[in-house]
Specification:
The chain is α+β, with helices and mostly antiparallel strands and 335 residues long. It has helices spanning 16-20, 27-39, 55-62, 71-86, 97-106, 110-115, 167-172, 178-187, 198-205, 215-233, 260-284, 290-299, 305-313, 319-333; strands spanning 11-15, 22-23, 40-44, 48-54, 93-96, 125-128, 131-136, 142-147, 162-166, 193-197, 236-245, 249-259. A hairpin with a 3-residue loop joins strand 11 and strand 12. Helix 13 (305-313) packs antiparallel against helix 14. The chain is elongated and about 80 Å long.
Length: 335
């Protein structure tokens, strides 16, 4: 396996259903899983996905990023992978059966339904381990990982509903909950902003301790530090806001996610965009400063500010564009 093939990148590709699944994984186990997926390349015995982890490739790709692949890294990875195999009776991944079969059909993998013995089953839950076998080469330069048959179709030959990211970002994260949150945010990156229930988020992150049912503790110990590290070390920028319902109880969280490269580009363009819109409003007869417009724009909650900008810029200049802006503010203020 040549390093050039990756162009200095190792990519992890997972089905979205696998990313959203309830996973009983520790921090080292999540990282080992990601490393293995980055190297998966074939199916053996018709049902087992096999990864061939080449330490030379890992070293040459990751060390320029400040991630050392020394003897301790290699030893730890082997130990964790072997531990994952031995832990399989703990049901490391929980997959809703109906949704799993729907995903297989969407990805043209109908034959896997029969392979996995799911033809006559239509509801329930699959409890699957991740790894079946781990083999280390004689010279200890490679590790061969064979994935569980239920995991294999979720990491190989994916066509729809999958997420792709660079392996290095998972390995850079040290916070216990940051890798799972990063994967989940990458999955939803193209949405810009999206909403999720606190209960579902806790399950995805594995933050299921009873004390985390209290929002303030969950936010302080889990969400806030994970988001901070993701913002500092990865390719996405994240912010979030709790939604209070039921007598002030936080039941949902709204996330905003941006690719950092795109964000910096848009930030450079934003002043000129605002000037264009302000000029249009003045032509329509409303005097408003750039600062006032920006303040109202950032205060929007029912309407996505990015959508507002796109919407306004596609309206004719002058009175028509001003009318569109007034309509947006009316929608914001009225249910």
């Amino acid at each position: 396996m040549e390093v050039g093939k990756y162009r200095r990148r190792l990519l992890v590709k997972k089905a979205n259903d696998l990313i959203e699944a309830r996973a009983y994984l520790s921090m080292p186990e999540r990282r080992a899983f990601a490393v293995s997926v980055a190297f998966v390349k074939r199916v053996v015995d018709n049902v087992y996905g096999e990864a061939e982890i080449d330490f030379e490739v890992l070293q040459r790709v990751l060390e320029p990023e400040g991630l050392k692949v020394d003897k301790y890294f290699k030893k730890r990875l082997k130990e964790v992978l072997k531990g994952l195999k031995e832990k399989r009776e703990l049901a490391l991944i929980e997959l809703p059966l109906k949704r799993y079969k729907e995903w297989l059909l969407e990805n043209n993998k109908r034959d896997w339904i029969e392979k996995l013995g799911l033809t006559s089953l239509n509801d329930g839950v699959i409890y699957a381990s991740i790894i079946e076998d781990v083999v280390v080469s004689d010279d200890k330069s490679k590790v061969f990982v064979r994935f569980n048959r239920f995991i294999t179709p979720l990491i190989l030959d994916l066509k729809k509903r999958y997420t792709l990211y660079e392996l290095k970002y998972i390995l850079l994260l040290k916070n216990q909950y940051a890798p799972a949150l990063y994967e989940f945010l990458k999955k939803n990156e193209n949405l810009g902003d999206f909403k999720i229930s606190v209960e579902k988020l806790r399950n995805i992150l594995g933050a299921t301790a009873k004390s985390y049912s209290i929002w303030t503790r969950f936010n302080e110990k889990v969400l806030e530090p994970a988001v901070k590290e993701i913002n500092e070390k990865t390719d996405i920028a994240v912010s979030y806001k709790p939604i209070r319902r039921n007598h002030g109880k936080v039941t949902e969280v709204v996330f905003k996610v941006y690719a950092k490269g795109n964000l910096s580009k848009h930030l450079r363009e934003l002043p000129a965009i605002l000037e264009t819109l302000i000029h249009s409003f003045r032509q329509g007869g409303e005097e408003i400063t750039k600062e006032e417009f920006a303040k109202v724009l950032l205060s929007l909650r029912r309407v996505n500010p990015a959508t507002v900008l796109w919407f306004l810029l596609h309206y004719p200049e002058g009175e028509t564009r001003l009318f569109a802006w007034q309509h947006i503010r009316w929608v914001e203020e009225n249910t």
